[in-house]
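Quick one, probably user error.
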């Protein structure tokens, strides 16, 4: 068991509506992340566009 814990969180909302105060999606992981660069992707459905904005990656000190 690793003593590493990290979290990915994000907010999802309909364009033109208010931004949620708290994350609407969160994933906690206990495996150490692999080396490399972060990336995101998505697959739209029903012709609905996906937009990404204000992407921030932070290393949080222990």
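Nope, works fine. Designed sequence:
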């Amino acid at each position: 068991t690793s003593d590493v814990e990290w979290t990915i969180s994000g907010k999802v909302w309909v364009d033109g509506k208010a931004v949620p105060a708290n994350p609407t999606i969160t994933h906690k992981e206990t495996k150490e992340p692999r080396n490399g660069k972060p990336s995101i992707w998505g697959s739209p459905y029903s012709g609905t566009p996906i937009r990404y904005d204000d992407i921030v990656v932070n290393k949080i000190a222990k």
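The chain has one domain: 1-62.
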